[in-house]
RNA sequence: CGGGGUGUGGCGCAGCCUGGUUAGCGUGCUACCUUGGGGUGGUAGAGGCCGCGGGUUCAAAUCCCGCCACUCCGACCA
C-alpha cells in the first residue's frame, strides 16, 4: 500500500476539546473522525487497527471453542419487554418505531437476542455447553459521551454468551474465559489487572473486570501491594480497620451539641476519633415499578458510604440523595440522625433525661455497616435537633441488618494477605459475568437434561470493549510525539520512507525494499509522498508505526536507516539487510 | 439530568463588550517557482448564507428572545 494513495488525514493541531492522549493522537493521526457526539467514523488506518484487534479477539475465542455469530443491531422491543429491561434500562436504550408503528430498540447489549436464538435451536443437554459471541456495533445513548473512543454512544463490542447444563460447567467456562481474556490483552501489549467487580442486582455469583492501568481511567480500582488482590472500588473489601486506642468512655446519655452536624465538627467537639462516631447517611432507594423509600446507612465516622454496595444491600436499583424535606417527612432530623429507636427498643435508654418519643422513627429502613457490629463507646445522633447520644453500645441491638457498605480506603489492609491497599485508575476493557438463570428463566429458555427434565440454561456473559481498546492501547502506548503501536495491533508493521521521491535512486531503492518486506510477510506501507523529509518523519512518529525504514542520503553508501518507534533509536544497515533488521525489530 | 462554555472557509483561532469599510490571521487546499535529512521559502488563486429561526435598528457576526448542536464539571454508566 502506498501512502500517497491512502486517506490518512494527519493533523498538525489537536481537536479543540480533546484532553486525553488517545483522543488527540487518534484524531491527529487520521485514525478516527467524529460525526456526532459519541459517534466516530473509522478512517482507513483506524479500520486497520480495529481489524487487527478483532482478529486477535476472534482467534483466541475460537481457540477456546467459542463460535462467532452476528445478531441484528435493531431488536424488537417485545423481547426487551419480556425480560423486563425495556422499562428498566432507562434513557440509554434508544427506542424507535418503524413505519408500521412497531417498536424497536438499538441493541446496547444482546442477552435477549442471543437467548432467543439459542432457545430456538438448542433443546438438549447433548448440545451443551455452547459459547456464542459476536463482534458488533452497540448503541447506548450515554448521557455524556466523552474522551473519544473511550466513552462513545456507538461503539464496537465483543459480547459472548455461554449456555450450560449446570452451574459447575458454567463456572468452568467462566474460568476459561478469564484465561482467554488474559491471553487476548497480553497479546495486545496491555498492562492490565483482573479485578473483582460488583455483580450487583444483575449478575450471579461472580463478576470480574479487566482493567487497563492508566491514570486517565474512569474507574477507581483497589490493588494490594502484597498479593495479587485487585477489585473495583465498588466491590473492594478489606480487613476490618484497627480501633484507635483512646475509646471515649461514657455512660449512655443524651448530650447537647448545638449546631454540631458534621462528623468533623463532632470529632472536634468531643475530641474523639471519628472511628467512634456513628455516621448516618440517608438515601432515597429506588426500586422496580417506581417504588422508593428512605434508607439510613450507618457507618463509622472514619468511613465513607460505598453507594453501589449500599444499593446492593437493600436490593435497590439506585440510590438518590434525599432532600431535607423528605427526611423530615420521614421523621428524621438531618444532621442529628442516629439509630435511636433501636437503642430505645433495646431498653437501654429508659430513664435517660427527657426522652422525646417523637424522635423515634420506627418506619425507616436502616442498614449498619458490618464494622459497627458490637461497636461500643460510640457517639451517635439523637434524632433531635442539637442532641447526640454518647456511650452507645451497639452490641445490644437486636434484629438489625449488618452489611459491608463502607468504601475501602487507601491504606486499608488487604483482607487476603494484610498488605497495604492502594488506589489506581483503570480503563475497563473487559467484563465477565456468571449470570446463572437470570435471563434464561424470564425468557423461558430451557433444555431437557439427561433425566428428561426441563431446566433453564445456566448462563455466563463475557464482554470486550473492542473500539475502546484502541483508546486504551494508546493511553498506555504513546509519547509526546504520538502513538506507539504495539506491532500486533499496528495499522502497518512498518513504513518505508523515501527521503526524497525526486531522487530516482532513492525512489527505486525504497520500492525495492518495500517489495522485499511485503515478500517477507511484513505488513508494510510505502511513504512515497512528495513531501519533505521532516514532514514524513513527523507523520511516522504521529501515526506510530512500530518501525520505519528510511531510504535517504546514506543510500550512496548502500545504507538505509531502520528506526524503532518505541525508542526512536536508529540503526544504519546495509540495504540487503534491511528486511532482516525490520523483522528483528518486530519480533 | 443539574450547572457552565462555545458555535465565524477543512482544521485552530481573532473580530462581538462599544452595531457601520471588501469578515481577518495561522494552517491546510490548487497552480507555478523554490527547497529536499526534521512540518523550506515565495507568488498567484479557490474556498464563508458568521449554527438555525425570530426580533430591535436606516444598518446585526456583533444587541435581545427562542431553538439546535457540540463541549466542560458533576450526577449517571448491567
Summarize the structure.
By secondary structure, the chain is an alpha+beta fold.
Can you describe what's shown?
This protein has 587 residues and is of the alpha+beta class. The protein folds into three domains: 50-237 and 423-475, 2-Layer Sandwich (BirA Bifunctional Protein, domain 2); 253-403, YbaK protein; 492-586, Anticodon-binding domain (Rossmann fold, 3-Layer(aba) Sandwich), CATH 3.40.50. It is built from 14 helices and 31 strands. The strands form eight sheets. Strands 3, 7, 8, 9, 10, 11, 12, 21 and 24 form a nine-stranded mixed beta sheet that branches. A five-stranded mixed beta sheet has the order 16-14-15-17-20. A five-stranded mixed beta sheet has the order 28-27-29-30-31, with helices on both faces. Helix 1 (21-28) packs across helix 11 and helix 2 (44-63) packs across helix 11. The mean pLDDT is 90. The structure holds one RNA strand of 78 nucleotides.
